[in-house]
Structure to design on (577 residues):
């Protein structure tokens, strides 16, 4: 219970104040009473001292009690204070107005007695405390509803509601720009897989802390879920300002994070949409920012992408490909073509290439294979390619004397599957095909993350005797470390280097010569891809690059054409010693 209550009486009438003070003094309770006749002085008193209860007259000459109470409640110094409105008259409407404005009670002056006033004050104080408890509970629930429990940032619900309000305000100021950004951490799944989910969660917390430091008070910032964050800022004047915000985010991730003794590197992809240029609704802006973020994730160097109208068409195109892929029957709709790999005119092997002749949207592998990777169908498609290649070429590959080999492309997504190598080895055993007759082609993308499952799969395939070929060498991320730490047997030099070597540019020729010499000194087989002229073929021969592949020799062809072309008696020679 209360030992003493501080009470402020605010009434312009001296007699009324004295009457209230007398009633308080005669009550069986300890009150510390302060009285004021003017509203401004009452506000000053609340600045100097905390009051438990304010007895506030409704009728005053300068301002009525409800207006004064609303003004007093706005003061930062008013805390834990209950208000009781007192008046010489009252009706139901006035009482409701006072209660709705925040008064804890309404008392007629003619009804005031010491005991009644004591009861009213104590009830008002208790009612105020209960209201505060209810408000605090509401704030906790509201925080739970609007805050992300892991990072403490706002969540999707709050972000979308706040963005909606900013858009409504923006409609009144069409000259101003609102930027909406979605940010997704790159390779976050790899971090979880490598270090565990506890490290992944802590990384999200540390990322949020860094972002908080670079954001200003007028910038909305939230975690939507997983490793995706959202940002919004209004009152911008140009795209340059918007990009500066995005670059601040990316720069915040430049330094690695130290988490549980692990040095964790993290980067991000940011998609940006602008109001009103890209849309005037919350849904449109979020969708456009998401599309732009998807494009940014595909870019190697530019990780901040602003939405453009053609991106929508690209997303729709990929969606159509995905839909058709999901409906397709691999056995009925796909087929394999084979492009020979030659050595000094003799066919030593062939690369198996998947074709989709019955496709309605696109028949280009460079378009449907990336979509298959993104939508999770590449594992099934990849195994079908492997099974089909073994089935079609079993005649050549079952002979122990045959050195003819089939080179089969494997997606980085397949290599991250823990049981991939075992599945491939089992298929060879079932078909009774020797490991020497199979080469697995990978790209350097598969080696970028040092994924444990990828390296284990490659080692298992290598130990079984399957040769690993590194495809498209010379593009993108070419790194010597990949050649040294992975069991690479063959390197296929990309056609872009071969194309340039056919020109008169000495630098291009020198590059090809240097790459070939280095690989040969590492005892790696070198295959020149994309040979399209006799000049290119001759120059590669001069560099002791004897394995060639390209349209100058043969285009990809169906199995029947390859069968006619390859004669076991005079065209299949020993390629492996």
């Amino acid at each position: 219970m209360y030992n003493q209550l501080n009470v402020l009486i605010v009434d312009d009438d001296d007699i009324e104040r004295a009457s209230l003070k007398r009633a308080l003094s005669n009550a069986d309770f300890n009150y510390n009473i302060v009285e004021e006749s003017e509203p401004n002085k009452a506000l000053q008193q609340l600045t100097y001292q905390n009051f438990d209860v304010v007895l506030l007259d409704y009728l005053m000459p300068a301002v009525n009690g409800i207006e004064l109470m609303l003004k007093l409640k706005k003061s930062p110094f008013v805390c834990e204070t209950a208000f009781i409105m007192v008046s010489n008259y009252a009706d139901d409407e006035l009482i409701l107005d006072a209660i709705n404005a925040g008064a804890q009670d309404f008392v007629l002056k003619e009804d005031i007695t010491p005991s009644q006033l004591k009861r009213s004050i104590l009830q008002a104080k208790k009612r105020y405390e209960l209201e505060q408890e209810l408000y605090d509970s509401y704030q906790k629930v509201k925080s739970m509803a609007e805050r992300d429990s892991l990072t403490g940032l706002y969540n999707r619900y709050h972000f979308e509601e706040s963005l909606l309000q900013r858009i409504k305000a923006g409609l009144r100021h069409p000259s101003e720009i609102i930027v909406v950004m979605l940010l997704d951490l790159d390779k976050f799944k790899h971090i979880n897989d490598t270090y565990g989910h506890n490290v992944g969660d802590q990384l999200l917390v540390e990322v949020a802390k860094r972002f908080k430091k670079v954001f200003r008070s007028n910038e909305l910032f939230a975690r939507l879920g997983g490793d995706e964050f959202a940002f919004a800022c209004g009152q911008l004047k140009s795209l340059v300002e918007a990009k500066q915000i995005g670059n601040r985010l990316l720069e915040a991730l430049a330094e690695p994070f130290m988490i549980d003794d692990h040095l964790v590197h993290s980067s991000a992809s940011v998609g940006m949409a602008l109001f009103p240029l890209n849309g005037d609704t919350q849904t449109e802006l979020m969708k456009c920012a998401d599309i732009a973020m998807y494009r940014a994730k595909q870019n190697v160097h530019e990780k901040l992408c602003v939405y453009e109208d053609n991106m929508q068409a690209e997303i729709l195109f990929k969606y159509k490909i995905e839909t058709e892929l999901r409906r397709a029957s691999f056995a009925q709709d796909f087929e394999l073509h084979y492009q020979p790999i030659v050595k000094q005119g003799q066919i030593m092997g062939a690369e198996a290439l998947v074709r989709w002749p019955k496709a309605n949207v696109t028949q280009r592998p460079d378009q449907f294979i990336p979509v298959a990777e993104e939508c999770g169908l590449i594992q099934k498609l990849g195994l079908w390619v492997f099974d089909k290649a073994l089935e079609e070429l079993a005649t050549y590959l079952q002979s122990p004397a045959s050195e003819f080999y089939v080179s089969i492309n494997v997606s980085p997504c397949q290599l991250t599957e823990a049981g991939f190598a075992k599945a491939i080895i089992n298929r060879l055993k079932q078909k009774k095909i020797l490991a020497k007759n199979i080469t697995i082609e990978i790209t350097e993308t598969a080696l970028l993350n040092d994924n444990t499952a990828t390296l284990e799969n490659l080692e298992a395939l290598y130990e079984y005797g399957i040769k690993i070929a590194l495809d498209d060498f010379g593009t993108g991320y070419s790194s010597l470390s990949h050649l040294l730490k992975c069991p690479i047997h063959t390197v296929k030099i990309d056609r872009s280097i071969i194309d340039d070597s056919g020109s008169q540019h000495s630098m291009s020729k020198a590059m090809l010569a240097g790459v070939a010499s280095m690989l040969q000194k590492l005892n790696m087989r070198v295959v020149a891809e994309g040979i399209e002229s006799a000049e290119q073929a001759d120059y590669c021969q001069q560099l002791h690059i004897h394995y060639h592949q390209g349209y100058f020799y043969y285009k990809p062809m169906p199995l029947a054409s390859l069968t006619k072309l390859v004669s076991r008696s005079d065209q299949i020679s020993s390629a492996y010693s």
About this structure: The chain is about 45% helix and 20% strand. The longest strand covers residues 346-355. The chain has three domains: 5-144, 156-307, 320-565. The chain has a mean pLDDT of 87.
